[in-house]
Structure formats: structure tokens, C-alpha cells
TrEMBL record, chain A:
It comes from Oceanobacillus arenosus. This is Uncharacterized protein. The chain crosses the membrane at residues 84-107, 119-140, 178-200, 220-240, 252-272, 309-328. Keywords: Membrane, Transmembrane, Transmembrane helix. It comes from the Bacteria.
TrEMBL record, chain B:
SUPFAM superfamilies: Winged helix' DNA-binding domain. PANTHER family: PADR-FAMILY TRANSCRIPTIONAL REGULATOR, TRANSCRIPTIONAL REGULATOR RV3488. This is PadR family transcriptional regulator. InterPro entries: Metal_resp_DNA-bind_regulator, Tscrpt_reg_PadR_N, WH-like_DNA-bd_sf, WH_DNA-bd_sf. Residues 24-91 form the Transcription regulator PadR N-terminal domain. Pfam families: PadR.
Length: 333, 120
């Protein structure tokens, strides 16, 4: 009889608490009925019990039958989105680890073995971490039932007239491009957030001796927020493109709004007096790149002083063109 | 030949899954407990594993097709299942559907047999 208890426990422990008692009692009744039928009034011995339990099958399978259909972490409704996000996250993680390795090797080629070990450690810990958190982020709402609403359902009613028209080739948004955009922005955020000190002119004398930074390190912390904001908006823009799948006036308008916000943030940031490294020219001279008064010095000095203006113009043109291009494509029928 | 048997087994599994539900519902206008259903059905030539039947009964109960009641008066407490009002309706409709499937499938199978005979 001990074996029956073990069998029932093995089945019910894998089932929801609320059903355990009821199922256990029903199963016990079943097993006793089967035993009675088998021995027909004679004494029940262990081999009879074993035979009956074998007939019922493995407790794992039985528990599976009781549990019914929902046996997954991430359901079919959101599996495609999950894979898409997972791909993006993994590519970003791998790229950041790879870029980090390359920078380290350039900075300090002698210690390449150490960097290589860092690379391996980064891959072994970073990739599973990214995988885990992405899965976690999808699994929790799935468990809470957030994806069961009508919008996500695969079987929601549809009519052939609901089918969207095939967009003109020029209106189509290539998924690959949008995904590449997201990855690009994300990699830049990570690099700017964690290794801004390498963002400048690199000094080498036999080996790497330091960086003359473009940016003002004292004020960088505050500006980092703006940078993340700007690139974050870039990611939002690419996500919108992915969702829409083709250019429409709505999407073009969203692009306009997002670009406007980015532009204001950039203006605000770049025109502030403390964004760029105020001692940049002086440090160049000190490092021996230039001598004060030389022709090269004058050229670089001019470029440095006017860089803000030209960068602004470039960004302005780029962002405005982005919007105009969107509207032009949206017009195509 | 063993290859054919393998396929047959898989296909039969799929086929049985639906028909067992009909067989079970057909016996539950009177209350039955799980094991009495197993013997009842097997006497009529429908073989159902208890490991399939018991979870099925619970699912049908959860869907509201069956009602259940524990009977603790006997020596062994037993859970009896019975068609609910909805269950009766469902069963009647299911029988109509089943008959139409049998009819049309018979038509299809036999027509095919005629064809091959004609071609030979």
C-alpha cells in the first residue's frame, strides 16, 4: 500500500494545490477498484499493486494529462515577437562584448591574453544573462495572462476585407533595416554610457598613453541623460517602423514628433558651453600633436570651434530629411 | 509493414481522442464514477485507459459539460459524474454531427473503392 501512496504523491505534487486533494482521493479509489478487479476477492500482494500502477502509466504522463494544455513559458501568440526581441538583444550583447574586446586590444595589445579571457567570460556570462532577462520579461506577463486578450489571440475573427493592401515597394519598411537601426542605437548608448572616456583623440607613443577627450568630463554625467534620451527616441522610432511595417501619414507624423524632440534635446545639449572639452586645443599642444601658431594648429582650431555649428547643421538636415522622406513615401499609393 | 503500423498507431491516437469524448458522454445520462465507466465502455467494446479517462472527466467537468458529486456513503468514497443541462444539449448536437461525419466519410471511402475497381 506504501507504493500506492508514493504513486499518488508523484502524480499530485506536480498539480495545482487546489486540485491535489480531490485528484488524490479519486485516484486512490481508482487504484483500489482496479486492484479488486484484478485479484477478485483474493489477497492483494505487492506484485498486483505493481501491475496496476504499470497499467496506469508513468506518474509524469498522468500528471501531464491532468494539467491539460497550457505547458509553455511563452505562448504561440507572442512567440514571434519574443524571438525578434531575443535576436535584437543577443546581437546587441554580443556586439558590445566584441567591441569592448577590440578596444581593449588596441589600447593594450600586450595583455591580449587577459582581454581574450575577459572576452570569453563576457560571452559565457553576458549572453545567458541577456537571454534569461528577455525570456523572464516575456514569461512573467504570459503567466499573468496578459497576452490572452483579444488583440493577441491567433484565432480572433478576421474577414478577407481586413487584409491590408500590399504596399508599394517604396512604402515598404524593411524589417532588417529597422532592426539594424535599433541595434545600432543600443550599441551607441552602451558605448557612450560606459566608455565615454575613450571618445576622443587617442595618443600613442609606442603604446597607448591616453585620450584627449572631445567631451567635457566634468559635465558629462548630466549630458549622458540627454544622450540616452536622444538615442532612446531613435529606438522608439525604429520600433514604430517595425510595428507599422509601411510608411503612412501617421508614422511620418510620429517620426516628425520624435525627431523634433531629439533635435531640441541635441540643441539644448550641444549649444551649452560646457558640453565639449574646453581645454581640447591646449591638450593637443601639450601632447605634442601641434605647436601653437602653426598652420595645422589654425586649421584644427577653426574646425574645433566650428564643429558645433556643423554638427548641428548635419543633424538638422538628417533629421528633417528623415521626416520629408517619410511623408514622400507615405504619399505613394 | 511495421512502418504502416507505426503510422496507423499515431493516426488512431488522434482519431480516438475525439471519439472517446462522445463515448463517455453517451454513458453519463446516469451518474457513473470513473472506473465503472471504464468497465461499462469496455463491455461495449470501447477501450479507454483509466489514465486518459480520469483527466478527461475532470476537464469536461471544468468546462461545465459534466456535474460531479462525491458519494461518501459507500465503503469507498467515489466521485460520480453526470451530464449537466448544457452537457445534454452538447451531446445531442454531437451525435448529429457524428452521424453526418460517418455518413459522408463512408461515402468518400466507398466511392474511392469503386473508382479503383473501375480503373483496374
Amino acid at each position: 500500500m506504501e507504493m500506492i501512496n508514493r504513486y499518488i504523491y508523484a502524480v499530485t505534487q506536480k498539480l495545482p494545490q487546489a486540485q491535489q486533494k480531490d485528484i488524490a482521493e479519486e485516484l486512490r479509489g481508482l487504484i483500489e477498484d482496479m486492484l479488486d478487479e484484478r485479484v477478485g476477492g483474493a489477497e492483494i500482494n505487492d506484485s498486483d499493486v505493481e501491475a496496476v500502477l504499470l497499467e496506469l502509466g508513468s506518474p509524469r504522463k498522468l500528471a501531464e494529462q491532468y494539467r491539460g494544455t497550457k505547458r509553455y513559458l511563452i505562448g504561440p501568440e507572442i512567440f514571434d515577437s519574443y524571438i525578434l526581441v531575443l535576436k535584437i538583444v543577443l546581437i546587441i550583447t554580443a556586439s558590445v562584448i566584441g567591441i569592448h574586446f577590440v578596444i581593449q586590444v588596441i589600447l593594450n595589445p600586450v595583455a591580449i591574453l587577459d582581454h581574450f579571457i575577459d572576452l570569453i567570460v563576457g560571452i559565457v556570462t553576458g549572453i545567458p544573462t541577456a537571454f534569461g532577462w528577455t525570456t523572464f520579461g516575456f514569461a512573467i506577463p504570459e503567466m499573468a495572462g496578459a497576452f490572452n486578450s483579444k488583440g493577441f489571440s491567433l484565432e480572433s475573427e478576421w474577414r478577407p476585407t481586413d487584409l491590408p493592401p500590399v504596399p508599394d515597394e517604396k512604402r515598404q519598411i524593411k524589417r532588417g533595416e529597422a532592426i539594424a537601426g535599433i541595434i545600432f542605437y543600443a550599441i551607441f548608448i552602451v558605448i557612450l554610457a560606459f566608455s565615454s572616456e575613450y571618445f576622443g583623440v587617442w595618443r600613442f607613443s609606442d603604446e597607448f598613453t591616453g585620450v584627449i577627450p572631445f567631451l567635457n568630463e566634468q559635465t558629462y554625467g548630466t549630458y549622458l541623460l540627454f544622450i540616452i534620451l536622444i538615442f532612446g527616441f531613435g529606438i522608439i522610432k525604429e520600433c514604430l517602423k517595425l510595428v507599422f511595417g509601411k510608411w503612412t501619414y501617421k508614422l511620418a507624423t510620429y517620426t516628425l514628433i520624435v525627431n523634433l524632440i531629439s533635435l531640441i534635446a541635441i540643441l539644448f545639449m550641444i549649444s551649452g558651453p560646457e558640453f565639449w572639452n574646453p581645454n581640447f586645443m591646449m591638450e593637443l599642444v601639450e601632447a605634442g600633436f601641434l605647436t601653437t601658431g602653426s598652420e595645422l594648429y589654425n586649421i584644427i582650431s577653426k574646425v574645433w570651434e566650428q564643429s558645433t555649428f556643423w554638427i548641428l547643421i548635419l543633424l538638422l538636415v538628417g533629421l528633417i530629411w528623415d521626416v520629408i522622406d517619410g511623408f514622400i513615401r507615405a504619399r505613394k499609393k | 509493414m511495421s512502418d504502416a503500423n507505426e503510422h496507423l498507431e499515431k493516426l488512431m491516437q488522434e482519431l480516438r481522442r475525439g471519439t472517446i469524448t462522445i463515448a463517455v458522454l453517451s454513458q453519463l445520462s446516469e451518474p457513473q464514477y470513473g472506473y465503472s465507466l471504464v468497465t461499462l465502455l469496455s463491455d461495449k467494446g470501447v477501450h479507454v485507459e483509466p489514465g486518459t479517462l480520469y483527466p478527461l472527466l475532470r476537464r469536461l467537468e471544468k468546462q461545465g459539460i459534466l456535474d460531479s458529486k462525491w458519494d461518501t456513503n459507500e465503503a469507498r468514497p467515489r466521485k460520480y459524474y453526470l451530464l449537466s443541462e448544457t452537457g445534454k444539449e452538447v451531446f445531442d448536437l454531437l451525435v448529429v454531427e457524428w452521424k453526418s461525419i460517418v455518413k459522408s466519410l463512408n461515402g468518400v471511402i466507398e466511392a474511392k473503392g469503386d473508382d479503383s475497381n473501375g480503373n483496374d
